Write a sequence for this structure.
C-alpha cells in the first residue's frame, strides 16, 4: 500500500468524496464541489473553445491577413459568416434579439437541408433494406437459424412500426399486433435498462478505482 | 416484516453498492472475458488492415464517460500503432482534447519507436459537428489547417497524402452521446466512409441496428466492450500499456458483483411487493 | 419583414443543401464547401451565447445576494482562475490548465455522473415491479442482460446454451429489431421537422416579437 504523494491526486480524491457526500445528504462540501465544477468548466470553455478555437483561427488570423493584403479572397470570404455570427450575439439583449434571427435561420435551414437526405439514407432506406433483404454470410453454421432470426426481426420491426401508427384505432387484428409491438418495445427497453445500469456502474467503478488504487495505493 | 424491508433507508442500499464495487477492486481478481461478435468484428478489421493505412480515432467524449471510453481508446490506439497503422486523433466533443492528451501521454512513453507526425497525429477539436464531418469529406486540411499544437498540417509528413475520406480507411467514434450517429449520417451515408464505434453502454443497444446493416463495421459497448478488446489485443501480444488492460479486467469483476447485487435487489423488492399486496388483499 | 427575410434564408439554405446532395456539379461543390464553412463558424458562436447567459445568471445572483450567492462566488472565482491559467501558461501537457482539467474538471464530471449508479440501484429496489405483462418482460430481459453481460454470467450454462449467448442473441435480434423500429420512427420525425423548418411552418427558433 502506497498512498499517493501527488497534491493533484489528493485534490481530485477530496473533490470526488465531496460529490459522494451528497449520497448521505445535501451539504456545503457537495455544493462547493458542484459550483467549482461549473466555474472550471466555463473557464475551460472560454479559453480553450472560444479563444483558441473560435476567436484566434476564425477572427484574429483572417483579419490579420486582410490587414496586410485587403483583397485576399480566401480571407474575404470569412467576413459574411463573421457578420452573421456577431448578429447571433444579439440574442443576449431583448432589444437586439431580432438580429439573431438571420444566423439562426441559416443554421436551422442548413441543418434541415443536410439532415433530410442523410436521414432517408441511413435510418430509413438502409434499415428497411436490412430488414427485408438478407444475404447469408458465406460461413454459416445452420442456415435455418439464420433465416428464423431474419424472420423474427421482420416481424418485430413491423409490429413496432404499427404500434406507432395512429391513423386507425388500435382494434381487432391491428389491436392485437400493436399489443405485440408494445411487448417487443418493452423487450428493447429492458435491454436498454440493463445496459444503462451497466454504464452507470462502470462510471462508479472508475471513480472507486481511482480512490482505492491511484489515491490510496491499495494493491 | 416485508413492509420494513420495502421501506429500507436508501443509504443502506447505497452502502451495498459501494461495498460490492470496492471489494473486487481491492482483491484484484480477474474473471475470463470472452469476446463477443461486435467487438471481434472491429478487432478483425484493424487486424487485417495493411500497415501504413490511416485511421481516424475520434474521441468524441468528455470526462463524464471516461471510465468506459478511455480504456477503448488505449486498446485501439495500441492495436493500430503496434501494427504500423497510422492514427489521427481528433474530437468533436468540446471537452474531448484533454482526453486525447491523457492517452497520448502514455502512448509517447510506450511507443518511442513511433514518431509524432509520421505515425500518429493529434488534430484536436473543431466545433461544428456535422459541418466538421462533412468538411473532412471535402478537404481535411481546410477543416484542420493546423494540428492541436499549432503545426500546419502541410508540415506534418503523414498528413500530406490525406485529403479526405478516400484516404481514410476507417473512422472510429468513441462516444457517450449522438456523435457516432452523426458519423453515420454524414460520413457513411454521404461519402461511403467505413465507420465503427465504441459507445457507452447507454448508447449501445440502439447501435445494434446500425451494426446489423453494416453501417458500423464493429462496435465496443461499454466497459465490457473495452475489456474484450483489450483482452484480444493482449492475446496477440500488442499490449504495451498492460496496466490499463489489467485495471479494466479488475473493474469487470467489480461490475459482476454490482450487477448480482442489483438483480438481488430487484428480486427482494418484488417479493416484498407481492407479499404486501397479498396482505392488503386480505 | 423581420421574419420573412430569415424564413426565406432558411428556405434557400435548406433547398440548396438538398439539391447539392444529388448533384456533383463543380459550382455546386464550391458553394457547398463554402456554405459548410459558414455553417461551422456560425455554429461555433452559439457556444458564446451559452457561456454569457450562464455567467450572467451567477453574477446577478451575487449582486442581488440571492439564496446561495456564496456558491456563485465559487463559480465566478474558479472561472476567472481557470481563464487566467489558460492565458498565462497555455494548454500544453503538464501546464496548470492541463492539470486543472485532469484533476479537477475530469474527476468532478465523472463523479457527478457516477452518482446515477446509486440511484439506479435504489430505483431497482423500490420501483422495478412486475405489476403486469409489460413490466414483467422489461424486468426479465433486464435481468438476463445484466447477468449475461458480466464475466460472472459465463458460469451460467446448460450444455450448448449459455447466459452470455442468450444475452448476445437478445441484443443482436429482438432488441436490434425493436431499436430499428424506433430508429425509423425517429428518422420520420426528424425529416418532418426538417421539412417544416425549410417550408417555414416551424418558426419557433426565431423567438417572439416583431
Amino acid at each position: 500500500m502506497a498512498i499517493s504523494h501527488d497534491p493533484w491526486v489528493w485534490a481530485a480524491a477530496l473533490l470526488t468524496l465531496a460529490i459522494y457526500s451528497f449520497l448521505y445528504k445535501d451539504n456545503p462540501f457537495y455544493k462547493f464541489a458542484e459550483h467549482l465544477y461549473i466555474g472550471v468548466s466555463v473557464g475551460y470553455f472560454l479559453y480553450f473553445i472560444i479563444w483558441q478555437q473560435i476567436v484566434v483561427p476564425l477572427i484574429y488570423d483572417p483579419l490579420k491577413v486582410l490587414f496586410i493584403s485587403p483583397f485576399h479572397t480566401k480571407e474575404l470570404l470569412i467576413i459574411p459568416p463573421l457578420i452573421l455570427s456577431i448578429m447571433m450575439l444579439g440574442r443576449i439583449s431583448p432589444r437586439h434579439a431580432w438580429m439573431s434571427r438571420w444566423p439562426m435561420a441559416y443554421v436551422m435551414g442548413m441543418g434541415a437541408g443536410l439532415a433530410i437526405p442523410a436521414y432517408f439514407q441511413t435510418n430509413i432506406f438502409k434499415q428497411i433494406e436490412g430488414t427485408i433483404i438478407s444475404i447469408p454470410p458465406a460461413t454459416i453454421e445452420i442456415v435455418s437459424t439464420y433465416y428464423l432470426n431474419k424472420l423474427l426481426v421482420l416481424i418485430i420491426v413491423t409490429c413496432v412500426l404499427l404500434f406507432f401508427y395512429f391513423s386507425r384505432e388500435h382494434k381487432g387484428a391491428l389491436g392485437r399486433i400493436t399489443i405485440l409491438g408494445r411487448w417487443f418495445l418493452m423487450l428493447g427497453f429492458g435491454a436498454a435498462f440493463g445496459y444503462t445500469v451497466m454504464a452507470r456502474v462502470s462510471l462508479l467503478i472508475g471513480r472507486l478505482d481511482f480512490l482505492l488504487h491511484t489515491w490510496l495505493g491499495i494493491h | 416484516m416485508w413492509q420494513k424491508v420495502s421501506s429500507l433507508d436508501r443509504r443502506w442500499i447505497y452502502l451495498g453498492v459501494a461495498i460490492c464495487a470496492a471489494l473486487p477492486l481491492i482483491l484484484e481478481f480477474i474473471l475470463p472475458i470472452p469476446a463477443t461478435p461486435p467487438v471481434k468484428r472491429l478487432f478483425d478489421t484493424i487486424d487485417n488492415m495493411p500497415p501504413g493505412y490511416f485511421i481516424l480515432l475520434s474521441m468524441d467524449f468528455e470526462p463524464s464517460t471516461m471510465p468506459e471510453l478511455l480504456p477503448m481508446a488505449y486498446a485501439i490506439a495500441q492495436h493500430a500503432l503496434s501494427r504500423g497503422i497510422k492514427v489521427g486523433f481528433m474530437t468533436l466533443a468540446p471537452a474531448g482534447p484533454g482526453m486525447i492528451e491523457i492517452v497520448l501521454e502514455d502512448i509517447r512513453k510506450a511507443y518511442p519507436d513511433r514518431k509524432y507526425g509520421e505515425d500518429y497525429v493529434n488534430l484536436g477539436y473543431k466545433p461544428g459537428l456535422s459541418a466538421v464531418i462533412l468538411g473532412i469529406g471535402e478537404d481535411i486540411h481546410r477543416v484542420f489547417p493546423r494540428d492541436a499544437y499549432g503545426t500546419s498540417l502541410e508540415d506534418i509528413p503523414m498528413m500530406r497524402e490525406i485529403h479526405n475520406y478516400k484516404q481514410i480507411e476507417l473512422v472510429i467514434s468513441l462516444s457517450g452521446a449522438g456523435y457516432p450517429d452523426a458519423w453515420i449520417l454524414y460520413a457513411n451515408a454521404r461519402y461511403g466512409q467505413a465507420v465503427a464505434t465504441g459507445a457507452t453502454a447507454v448508447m449501445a443497444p440502439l447501435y445494434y441496428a446500425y451494426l446489423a446493416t453494416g453501417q458500423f463495421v464493429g462496435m465496443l459497448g461499454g466497459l465490457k466492450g473495452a475489456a474484450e478488446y483489450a483482452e484480444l489485443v493482449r492475446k496477440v501480444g500488442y499490449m504495451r500499456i498492460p496496466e490499463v488492460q489489467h485495471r479494466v479486467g479488475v473493474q469487470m469483476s467489480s461490475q459482476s458483483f454490482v450487477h448480482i447485487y442489483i438483480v438481488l435487489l430487484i428480486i427482494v423488492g418484488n417479493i416484498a411487493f407481492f407479499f404486501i399486496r397479498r396482505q392488503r388483499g386480505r | 419583414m423581420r421574419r420573412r427575410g430569415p424564413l426565406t434564408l432558411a428556405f434557400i439554405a435548406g433547398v440548396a443543401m438538398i439539391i447539392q446532395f444529388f448533384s456533383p456539379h463543380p459550382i455546386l461543390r464550391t458553394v457547398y464547401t463554402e456554405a459548410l464553412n459558414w455553417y461551422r463558424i456560425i455554429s461555433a458562436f452559439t457556444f458564446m451565447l451559452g457561456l454569457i447567459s450562464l455567467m450572467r445568471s451567477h453574477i446577478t445572483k451575487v449582486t442581488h445576494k440571492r439564496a446561495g450567492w456564496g456558491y456563485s462566488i465559487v463559480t465566478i472565482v474558479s472561472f476567472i482562475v481557470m481563464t487566467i491559467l489558460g492565458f498565462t501558461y497555455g494548454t500544453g501537457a503538464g501546464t496548470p490548465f492541463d492539470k486543472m482539467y485532469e484533476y479537477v474538471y475530469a474527476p468532478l464530471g465523472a463523479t457527478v455522473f457516477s452518482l446515477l449508479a446509486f440511484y439506479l440501484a435504489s430505483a431497482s429496489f423500490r420501483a422495478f415491479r412486475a405489476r403486469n405483462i409489460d413490466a414483467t418482460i422489461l424486468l426479465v430481459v433486464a435481468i438476463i442482460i445484466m447477468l449475461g453481460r458480466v464475466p460472472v454470467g459465463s458460469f451460467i450454462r446448460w450444455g450448448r446454451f449459455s447466459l452470455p449467448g442468450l444475452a448476445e442473441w437478445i441484443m443482436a435480434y429482438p432488441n436490434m429489431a425493436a431499436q430499428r423500429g424506433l430508429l425509423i420512427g425517429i428518422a420520420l420525425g426528424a425529416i418532418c421537422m426538417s421539412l417544416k423548418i425549410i417550408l417555414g411552418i416551424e418558426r419557433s427558433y426565431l423567438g417572439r416579437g416583431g
Q: What stands out?
A: Residues 142-219 of chain A form one domain. Chain A is about 75% helix and 0% strand. The helical segments of chain A are 7-20, 28-68, 73-76, 79-88, 101-132, 143-163, 172-215. Chain A touches chain C through 115 residues (CB under 8 Å).
